[in-house]
């Protein structure tokens, strides 16, 4: 479920591997995994568009090495030195195949680092476009991801009532986490937490203000959802 808060370990268990890299193309048979961070000191300029449905994800730099001590000074690579596609290259090919040839878009699970050891599942996205652009005199990759309404996939009849996926901006999540002290506001539980819209998005509630977001445990989140439907 999107807007769920999980530990690093839970995230790795869920994906069946120890996640080290930010970009993981076809990590599993049916999806890729991207780790993002929009914190002030984050190494890449990932961006959530205002509508909360679109992510612009930046490609990754060459690894630091003896030959290249400043990866930010050279183009982001599409190929490795041995001529294989990098993760930039793999995601770029998949995005272009979708855009130009109508191949089904690659599904991507997006996790976001909120603070050390604490991650938020931002939901399932489709990779719909990619391009390169020049920034500070070098080439960087950009990937466009669009949120999928995860409820509409499983429960078609409830589309109108279900809350559409909206990414809550990082600064709002951090503010809510601090205000609610990392606990469910109803019962004080500290595990299986979610960021909950107090007034649902479908009823006009905003994702952009901490006043409309609260921490709820899985049980109280579901209880509230059932009442609304
Ligand atoms: Zn609770």
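Sequence proposed for the structure above (229 residues):
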């Amino acid at each position: 479920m999107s807007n769920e808060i999980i530990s690093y370990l839970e995230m790795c268990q869920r994906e069946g591997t120890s996640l080290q890299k930010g970009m993981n193309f076809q990590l599993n048979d049916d999806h890729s995994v991207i780790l993002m961070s929009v914190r002030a000191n984050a190494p890449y300029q990932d961006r959530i568009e205002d509508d909360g449905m679109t992510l612009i994800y930046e490609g990754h730099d060459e690894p630091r090495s003896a030959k290249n001590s400043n990866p930010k000074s050279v183009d982001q690579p599409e190929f490795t030195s041995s001529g294989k596609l990098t993760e930039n290259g793999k995601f770029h090919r998949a995005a272009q195949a979708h855009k130009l040839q109508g191949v089904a878009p690659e599904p991507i699970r997006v996790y976001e680092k909120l603070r050390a050891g604490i991650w938020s599942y931002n939901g399932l996205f489709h990779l719909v476009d990619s391009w390169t652009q020049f920034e500070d005199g070098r080439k960087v990759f950009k990937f466009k991801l669009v949120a999928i309404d995860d409820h509409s996939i499983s429960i078609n009849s409830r589309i109108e009532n279900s809350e559409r996926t909206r990414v809550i901006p990082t600064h709002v999540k951090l503010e809510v986490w601090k205000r609610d002290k990392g606990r469910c506001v109803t019962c004080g539980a500290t595990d299986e937490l979610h960021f909950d819209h107090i007034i649902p998005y479908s009823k006009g509630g905003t994702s952009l203000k901490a006043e409309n977001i609260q921490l709820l445990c899985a049980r109280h989140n579901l209880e509230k959802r059932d009442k609304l439907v």
